[in-house]
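Colleagues,

For the teaching module next term, I've prepared a clean inverse folding example: a structure given as tokens, and then the sequence designed for it. I'd like students to try predicting residues themselves before seeing the answer, so please don't circulate the second half yet.
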């Protein structure tokens, strides 16, 4: 069988030199890191930004009249400007710093959901969602008396147009929630089409961009969605993320968390809220982490999001063909080119934890399990899969190492 040719616009050697951890051997072997979907590694530029903030610019933000307070605030708000550009928002007030995608989605579920979704209303999610974009909606439905419906999947792990057709008859849909890219199957959803579908029903579209924003250009205006959540730690950054939301919706929403920072005035009887975006940033934020998230976004932009996408696209096509050529390996999800850099598979009937352990002995890091998508696993009658996910620092050598590792798994378990 022909294997897709791999060519990349990236200078892989130069990129790898930016990531100190890649020089660290594991079990005496070269580290082959194929678990960036769980969390990515960090380039020196991001690590140095964190150190630099603490060494030169650290104080709490939005309060100190002294030099360091002003410097920290300037850098923190500067990171917001970078993230505004990163998702192409047209207004920096629409970019809220959060811990990660989970917090961003819960912010929408609490502040928007508990205000604008009520008994008799409907919420639509999909069967492929990460628990972070499923449990908040289930809980919201339970607490408000709304009903929750799911867009189902075809056998190749794409959204089923027939199920969309069936759900078209549901009335009072207030919110549609969908992943931009599936973390278990690599399915890429057509967000502009889903935005149109949601808006035709008078609903808002919430997009979980955790697996998309690190890997492809994101333009929230072109996507046409209403909320977009991303995690910085999956895009070369530390523990900070953003929620982007349309200003007119954020203005209408009550706060999520309350306390310091998010207020304008407080008396013993009454509190008025701060302006956007600070209305949604109660308490002391993750200052250095948010600044370093800005550095991560600039690092990725410096390489080019289109180039990163093209690199992963080519590497995924190559990897899919390589895995397809190994007898006993079953892959799940759409065939390339319609998939992102996530390869989910099983080796015979070997438990994915055993697969991952044998691979680990070769220095190869992959994830094994249900990937926080239990309903998706049930849909495909699976307990778990082994998942290899690629990023800008992976190359053909990593995929070739994975293939050799899988051959070792087969020998070990007589597949
Ligand atoms: N949404 C998707 C699509 C994800 O893949 C993840 C994390 C989350 C939300 C939650 O991200 P967090 O940063 O808030 O935790 N996904 C994975 C994964 O696939 N393996 O480990 C974490």
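(Answer key — instructors only)
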């Amino acid at each position: 069988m022909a294997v897709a040719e791999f060519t990349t616009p990236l200078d892989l050697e130069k990129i790898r030199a930016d990531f100190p951890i890649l020089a660290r051997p594991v079990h005496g072997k070269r580290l082959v890191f194929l678990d960036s979907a769980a969390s990515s590694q960090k380039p020196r530029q991001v690590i140095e930004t964190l150190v630099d903030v603490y060494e030169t610019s650290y104080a709490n933000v939005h309060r100190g009249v002294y030099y360091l307070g002003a410097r920290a605030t300037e850098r923190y708000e500067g990171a917001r400007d970078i993230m505004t550009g990163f998702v192409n928002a047209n207004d920096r007030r629409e970019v809220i710093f959060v811990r990660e995608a989970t917090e961003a989605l819960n912010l929408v579920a609490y502040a928007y959901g508990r205000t604008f979704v009520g008994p008799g209303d409907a919420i639509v999610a999909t069967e492929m969602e990460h628990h972070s974009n499923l449990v908040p909606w289930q809980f919201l439905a339970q607490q408000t008396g709304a009903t929750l419906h799911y867009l189902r999947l075809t056998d190749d792990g794409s959204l089923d147009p027939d199920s969309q057709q069936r759900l078209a008859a549901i009335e009072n849909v207030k919110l549609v929630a969908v992943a931009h890219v599936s973390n278990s199957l690599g399915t890429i959803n057509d967000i502009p089409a889903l935005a149109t579908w949601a808006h035709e029903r008078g609903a808002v579209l919430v997009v979980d961009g955790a697996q998309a924003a690190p890997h492809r250009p994101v333009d929230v205006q072109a996507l046409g969605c209403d909320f977009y959540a991303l995690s910085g730690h999956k895009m070369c950054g530390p523990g900070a993320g953003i929620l982007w939301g349309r200003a007119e919706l954020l203005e209408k929403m009550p706060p999520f968390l309350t306390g310091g920072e998010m207020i304008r005035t407080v008396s013993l009887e009454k509190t008025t809220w701060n302006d956007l975006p600070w209305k949604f940033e109660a308490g002391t934020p993750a200052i250095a982490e948010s600044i370093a998230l800005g550095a991560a976004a600039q690092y990725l932009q410096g390489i080019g999001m289109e180039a990163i996408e093209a690199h992963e696209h080519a590497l995924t096509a190559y990897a899919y063909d390589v895995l397809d050529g190994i007898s006993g390996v079953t892959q799940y999800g759409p065939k390339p080119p319609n998939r992102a850099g996530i390869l989910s598979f099983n080796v015979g009937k070997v438990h994915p934890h055993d697969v991952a352990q044998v691979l680990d002995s070769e220095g190869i890091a992959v994830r094994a399990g249900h990937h926080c998508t239990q309903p998706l696993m049930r849909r495909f009658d699976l307990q778990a899969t082994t998942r290899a996910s690629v990023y800008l620092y992976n190359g053909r050598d990593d995929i070739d190492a994975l293939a050799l590792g899988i051959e070792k798994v087969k020998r070990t378990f007589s597949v």
